[in-house]
């Protein structure tokens, strides 16, 4: 059983910063991708950023240049540094881990709310 626990969400003013953290536990294949997705009310879940166990990154277009994803393989953790936050960044942010080992394994955290408002 794989579990993901997120932390770091909250309320921040436009232009501010937040750092999200996600720790994974359980039986995890060492070659994997960890990422952050978000879902705003009435919208589909979308990719924010993802990073592979070898360090390759991928960002959603709307966050490029403002958000930075990083990970600590030893701690099975992934982080999202969010700067220059905008009201449109308001959403529930979900941590994800996935890998392919014959079949695809895909796990999600419970989500953490990020609200950008003055």
Task: Give your account of this protein's structure.
The radius of gyration is 14 Å and the shape is globular. It has no helices and 11 strands. The mean pLDDT is about 95. The relative contact order is 0.32. It is mostly beta strands. The strands form 2 sheets. Strands 2, 4, 5, 6, 9, 10 and 11 form a 7-stranded mixed β-sheet that branches. A 4-stranded antiparallel β-sheet has the order 1-3-8-7, with no helix packed on it.
Describe the structure concisely for a colleague.
The protein is mainly beta. It has strands at residues 3-7, 10-12, 18-25, 33-39, 46-52, 57-59, 67-72, 77-82, 91-101, 103-108, 112-116.
Break the fold down into its secondary structure elements and pairings:
Blueprint: E1 3-7, E2 10-12, E3 18-25, E4 33-39, E5 46-52, E6 57-59, E7 67-72, E8 77-82, E9 91-101, E10 103-108, E11 112-116
Parallel strand pairs: 2-11
Antiparallel strand pairs: 1-3, 3-8, 4-5, 4-9, 5-6, 7-8, 9-10, 9-11
Mean pLDDT: 96
- Low-pLDDT stretches: none
What's the total helix number?
0
**Count of beta strands:** 11
Biggest sheet overview: 7 strands, mixed
The general outline is: globular
Helix and strand string, N-terminal first?
EEEEEEEEEEE
Amount of beta strand = over 45%
The chain-level structural class is mainly beta
Whole-angstrom Rg:
14 Å
Please give the alpha-carbon distance between the first and last residues. 40 Å
The helix fraction, in percent, is: under 10%
């Amino acid at each position: 059983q794989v579990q993901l626990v997120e932390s770091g969400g909250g309320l921040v003013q436009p232009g501010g910063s937040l750092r999200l953290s996600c720790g994974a536990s359980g039986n995890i294949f060492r070659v994997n991708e960890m990422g952050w997705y978000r879902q705003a009310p009435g919208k589909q879940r979308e990719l924010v950023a993802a990073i592979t166990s070898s360090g390759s990154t991928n960002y959603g277009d709307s966050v490029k240049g403002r958000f930075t994803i990083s990970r600590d393989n030893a701690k099975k953790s992934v982080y999202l540094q969010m700067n220059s936050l905008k009201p449109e960044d308001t959403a529930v942010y979900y941590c994800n881990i996935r890998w392919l080992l014959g079949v695809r394994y895909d796990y999600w955290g419970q989500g953490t709310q990020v609200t950008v408002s003055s």
